[in-house]
Amino acid sequence: MTHPFLSIRDFGVRFPVRSESFRRGRYFYAVRHISLDVRKKETFCLVGESGSGKTTLVWAILGLHPFAEGEMAFCGRSIKRSNDPVHQALISNAQMVFQDPVAAVSPFLTLGQSIEEPLRARGVGKKERAAIAQRLAAETGLSHELLGRRPCEVSDGQNQRVCIARALSTKPAILFLDEPLTALDAIVQREVAELLYRMKKDYNATFFLVTHDLGFVKRCGTTVAVMYLGRIVERAAKETFFSNPCHPFSQALLSSVLKPGIWKGERIVLKGESPSPQNPPSGCVFHTRCPRRLPVCEKTAPEERLVGAEHAVCCHLF
């Protein structure tokens, strides 16, 4: 039996409720009841609104937040708590590209030193580090002259190229990309998107992509999962998701994209704001904004249902 590269079951991450009172022991869940599988060498795409818990989920997978419930498995080996030996093996085989490239690099290091940083931490010699940094700089479109500069002396796009080169320096088995295009202007977004697409083909690594850019997802994604208020509401293969989105929130997301070829129907405008995770609604978490809600949606949370091959939806309409 072939195990998923990364598997998550009934996963939850919680945080204490901050208030002016001295009451303790109160928590809210930023993500809860998350179950998903990531196959080796695929591009798994996690999409949703800002504040839905996407980054929190990634940080918990990487041990930056402890998970409160559920479990993970890495290459078939179970991870029952944060930072146990199997979790450490996952972390050591992973790298991450953050949303803000300037904040993700040290202002005190040159670009070349930033690329070399993970190699230095692993004890790679100085000459080998420099050679790897120069090769990665060339692959990611950075000239040799830029390696001696500091982050404040180059553009955001060049800093993001440095972050990508640094993440690839250790040849990670899985690369997490948290909104890698959001902080860049439109022209640079296209250039960095093209770079990521090329690096995925060249390095053949597993990509876990958190993004708002559904056009980028359509081009390079393999599997799509849609998150709303800390829950996965739909999972499907990329082709299925774009041709037959089932959850009303998925349909609204796709209808908001202005790029041609993403959505053929009328624009679906959701009313109101997403509820706070500290005070989630009863029943289905989306029912307060859903244009197709039923009476049962206000009382009972829907279970995940398969509506096709590898296509799962959490909705009472199915």
Which terms would index this structure?
alpha/beta; globular; four-stranded antiparallel sheet; eight-stranded mixed sheet; 318 residues; Rossmann fold
Order of helices and strands: EEEHEEHEHHHHEHEHEEHHEE
Structural class: alpha/beta
The main sheet comes to:
8 strands, mixed
Kindly identify the CATH topology. Rossmann fold
Helix content: 25-40%
Number of helices: 10
- Cross-sheet strand order for the largest sheet: 6-7-8-3-9-10-12-11
| Rg over alpha carbons | 21 Å
Mean pLDDT: 92
> Quick one: CATH class?
Alpha Beta
**Binned strand content:** 15-25%
Q: Point out poorly predicted stretches.
A: none
Q: State the shape.
A: globular
| CATH superfamily heading | P-loop containing nucleotide triphosphate hydrolases
Q: How many structural domains?
A: 1
Count the strands? 12
For the record, the CATH architecture stands as: 3-Layer(aba) Sandwich
Q: Cα distance, first to last residue?
A: 30 Å
